[in-house]
Design a protein that fits this description.
Number of strands: 10
Low-confidence stretches: 6-20, 22-38, 50-54
Largest sheet: 8 strands, mixed, barrel
CATH superfamily: Sortase
CATH class: Mainly Beta
Structural class: mainly beta
Number of helices: 3
Mean pLDDT: 79
Strand order of the largest sheet: 3-4-5-6-9-10-8-7
Number of domains: 1
Radius of gyration: 16 Å
């Protein structure tokens, strides 16, 4: 098993990972973020990497992400840590005017072997656009940089962007064990009906460079 916390996945199995999608007023946050994408089982299946492993950089030591930058869509955001709530679901970033992305701390850190998972809102109610509002505009070849707490940076290249119905969330593709450092960015997308977005937008990326920032 890749550097996941097995205990956290066992606790979360059968619950859900909240992909922050707040569509309504901040007071309606609970209603607007109830759509869930499945959490993986205790032993995520092995899946094929999206591109040949030869194109990936070597894994780096564990260090939590502090800042996430995506130049192609104007993202430069601090990163908060997200854990599990009492019901076993995953936290989402708070709905505030100063919207931020969040790293699910029971996934690998960016640059470790395995899929590192970050979540963000697409909208934040009366505050307007969320930090991942333009996530679906990314294309293969675009760059993503995670600045880490230990002073290094992990640079990723987008390999795929997928918009999928929430009932068809590709759990194995998102959480399955891979043989190299990869990144998953998740938000909501598609039509908005009331406080509910129909789809999830998922960005897949691979580590291509790491070093001092």
């Amino acid at each position: 098993m890749s550097p996941y916390s097995r205990r956290a996945f066992l606790a979360a199995a059968g619950a859900g990972l909240l992909a922050g999608c707040a569509g309504g007023h901040p007071a309606d946050r609970a209603a607007s973020t109830t759509s869930r994408t499945p959490v993986p089982p205790a032993d995520p299946p092995a899946v094929a990497s999206a591109a040949p492993s030869a194109g990936a950089a070597r894994p780096i030591e564990r260090s939590a992400p502090a800042v996430l930058r995506i130049p192609a869509i104007g993202v430069d955001t601090p990163v908060v840590r997200l854990g599990l709530q009492a019901d076993g679901s995953v936290e989402v970033p708070a709905v505030t005017a100063d919207d931020r992305a969040g790293w699910y701390r029971y996934s690998p850190t960016p640059g470790q072997t395995g899929p590192s998972v970050l979540l963000g809102h697409v909208t934040v109610g009366e505050y307007g656009d969320g930090v991942f509002r333009k996530l679906d505009r990314l294309r293969p070849g675009d760059g993503i940089t995670a600045r880490l707490e230990n002073g290094t940076s992990a640079e990723f290249t987008v390999t795929a962007v997928r918009t999928v119905g929430k009932e068809e969330f590709p759990t194995a593709d998102v959480y399955g064990n891979v043989d190299r450092p990869e990144l998953r960015l998740i938000t909501c997308g598609g039509p908005l009906t009331g406080d509910e977005y129909r789809d999830n937008v998922i960005v897949f990326a691979v580590l291509t460079r790491a070093g001092e920032r």
